[in-house]
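Reviewer 2 asked us to include a model.

Predict the structure of this chain.
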Amino acid sequence: MVTELRLSAFGPHRSAAFPLGPVTLFAGPSGSGKSQALAAYEALAGLGSGATLEEAFPDPRSRIPDLAVPDAQRRRGFRLGCTVDGPAGPVRLDLAVQAEPALRIVGERLSQDGQILLATALRDPGRRSVQAAWLTGGAIGVTRAPLPDDRLGTALLPLRVAGSTAGQRQVLAAAEQVVVALRSAFPCDPRPDRMRAAVPPGEGRLLGDCANLADVLRRTRHECGTRHALLTGAARTGCAGPVAGLDVRAPAGGGAVTAVLDRGPARPATELARLGAGELRFLALALVLLTGPGVLAMDPAAELLSAQQALTVLADGFDRGLDRRQSAELLRLALLSGARGHIRLVAAVGEDTAAAVRRLPGVAMVDLTA
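Predicted model (structure tokens):
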């Protein structure tokens, strides 16, 4: 799991290190860097999953630190990194990215206990590669080879290192630990405007915008009664009016699926399309916090059993459109899942939520007010 996010020079952040617990909330006024911190984590997660720099940083100039001055070659960029804890112990990943004049990685370092396991550097600006050196041990000591300048070198190491020496095995263990942790992230931003329409039945894996919520409810209702019951209990707290259950409707011959709230005997059910935006966001976030990689549209780490994976949910504007009761219930679910070790939450919240939970046990608050 990622236990620290470092933003050495990223947006408004300079020399910042943020410890991450099971539930970590970023708070502060507009412009304080909450969204930038979440974007940095999401970008690292994308790079760990094999994304290119352009995919991870679609607007790289917005990540350049304020008032950054270009060097003699008119280059500007940003720096970020993280620490990942696991069986190999704490492993550090640090990344330097050039955003101007061309987007490319100019330096990467993977280290453990002060020992450098992988280091890359841009030696020739005219070539689209970096010179990499990783620990080998034995008679060779270090292996040197070029790597692409638009992908995370750490994620490529398992394909390049044989693991025949103790040094190589140390490099592989550290790299795989970092990659597994970064891949186990799910950026989530429910969009109520996309959640109201009926959806065709599919795999039942929740998208990041939660537009296919009805299809996922169809799946959880039939495959996971315990989680579905917990979600129904949460709906009683977060939705207005009586809630007897969560159900789905589909034409007898097949077709689009519609989700409804069962209002109990002698009461007509309410289609989710008629719920308020806050209620829809609440239901979607509650489902994410109560589920796991197999029900989310993400590639789970095949190296680990699902019971051994710690999924990190990334939610910018976590409490957007929610009232205090809904926010409190979602945090209760996050703490419940975090205590079990399967779900971690890293989110940005508004000032009202921050004030309400600032001293709540189990919640790590990152205050960006200063």
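Residues 53 and 150 are 5 Å apart (CA to CA). The first strand starts at residue 2 and ends at 10. We have added this to the supplementary material.
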